[in-house]
Amino acid sequence: MSNQPQKKDIAKVPEPTLRRLPWYLSNVKLLKQKGEQYVSSTQISKEINVDASQIAKDLSYVNISGRTRVGYEVDALIEVLEDFLGFTDMHKAFLFGVGSLGGALLRDSGLKHFGLEIVAAFDVNPNLIGTHINGIPIFHSSEFVNKMKEYDVHIGVLTVPIEIAQQITDTMIAGGIKAVWNFTPFRIRVPENIVVQNTSLYAHLAVMFNRLNFNEH
Amino acid sequence: MSNQPQKKDIAKVPEPTLRRLPWYLSNVKLLKQKGEQYVSSTQISKEINVDASQIAKDLSYVNISGRTRVGYEVDALIEVLEDFLGFTDMHKAFLFGVGSLGGALLRDSGLKHFGLEIVAAFDVNPNLIGTHINGIPIFHSSEFVNKMKEYDVHIGVLTVPIEIAQQITDTMIAGGIKAVWNFTPFRIRVPENIVVQNTSLYAHLAVMFNRLNFNEH
To answer: Which SUPFAM superfamilies match (chains A, B) (predicted)?
Structure first.
């Protein structure tokens, strides 16, 4: 018998579910602040306008069971959701490209509360190398492979200019990075076993501008 | 005859299309740097792994036509895409909640290159009120309604704690904000005519952690 989790225990949870679970978490945290001890999926449903049956289905991926009539225990649900979403483990990351957005992310200590700790950043700008932002050291990009040996890092945050987005991604992966959080508007290509999470603020802006424009005419 | 665009001219473009168009834009910008003058959807397709027919369909929303065999003119395509995506107009915005993420967004001058200018921020922290970040003034939240008269703003960026996310949203909308860029993990409720763009970094982290965990077992 092994203590390692087995493949079947780690479900590949559908992305829409993973995107909704943080809504439930923030909602249940609010209920806790209001002094509630139990919460039902019907209650959450009323607050956030998602079907109660969908909520119950999403929560079925999480290892918690509700009690008939009273629902889920608030404290237990928060703990289990934070753990399930990976917010209680600290995942170390390197950031590549300390430009405007990269620098902003280094200053956002809030990511730590959700399980992401950026431990070092890389750039080629001589004015940045050797300095710190928010306590995080900035190294020359050529030091990446060395630093991979020093830190236990699996995640790379990509905030470089689009011209070098693919090249830096390839370097990251060759160095052992397993997941790329891509903030560039560039569609990077990676091998099948590498995780990519695209967060293009500019694509979100484009959607918002289009909808706003549509409503105003 | 009126010069105003008519409702039918402003198509409600499908969200997946709006999310892909910035990929094409960044790709075509790269081709321009490499000295290319024409680009076909087949060429873009090879670079970014999206079907050429899908690309042609997406580009059909944009007012540009390709020429048989040579494809789209690179300069024209960049111009038309940037314009279509709203990146060439400057959209003014207020930011609500100058915490860690809010402060980081104020420091990200990159948003300006994609059509968003944060012109003022609001908070209740006495240490922040009256100061500037990256040249952007921070006012007390109670001044919001006054400042709406002073600035021509339609967009509100929401980076407050979840406990007050709904309340601040309601205040924004009552004051005349037409679109909310919601960075909180809280699912805000708004009237039908108000645009909401959710960008929860934490939900993206949850997806990335789950996929990474899945791959590692």
So the answer is: NAD(P)-binding Rossmann-fold domains, Winged helix' DNA-binding domain
CA of A70 vs chain B CAs: smallest distance (Å): 24
Residue-wise DSSP of A39-98:
E-HHHHHHHHT--HHHHHHHHTTSS---BTTTBEEHHHHHHHHHHHTT-SSPEEEEEE--
A86 labelled ligand-binding: no
What letter would DSSP give residue B67? Answer: B
| d(CA B105, nearest CA chain A) in Å | 7
User: Which amino acid, one-letter code, is at B2?
Assistant: S
Across the interface, do A210 and B87 touch by the CB < 8 Å criterion?
no
Using a CB-CB cut-off of 8 Å, the residues of chain B touching A5 are 217
- Taking only the tens of pLDDT, chain A with its 217 residues reads 344 444 445 567 898 999 899 999 999 999 999 999 999 989 899 888 889 999 999 999 988 877 777 889 999 999 999 999 989 889 999 999 999 999 999 998 889 888 999 999 999 999 999 999 999 999 999 999 999 999 989 999 999 999 999 999 999 999 999 999 999 989 999 999 999 999 989 889 999 998 998 887 6
Cβ proximity of B209 and A86 under 8 Å? yes
Bridge partners, residue A101, by sequence: none
Chain A residues with CB under 8 Å of B12 CB are: 210-211, 214
* ipTM for the assembly: 0.86
> B101 touching A, CB under 8 A?
yes
CA angle B146, B148, B149 (to 5 degrees): 70
Question: CB of A5 within 8 Å of any CB in chain B?
Answer: yes
Say what the pLDDT of residue A48 is.
84
Structural domains in chain A, CATH included, are 4-85 (1.10.10.10), 91-203 (3.40.50.720)
Residue B197, chain A, CB below 8 Å: the answer is: yes
Nearest alpha-carbon partner for A21 in B41, B133, B185: B185
Query: Rounded mean pLDDT of B171-195?
Result: 95
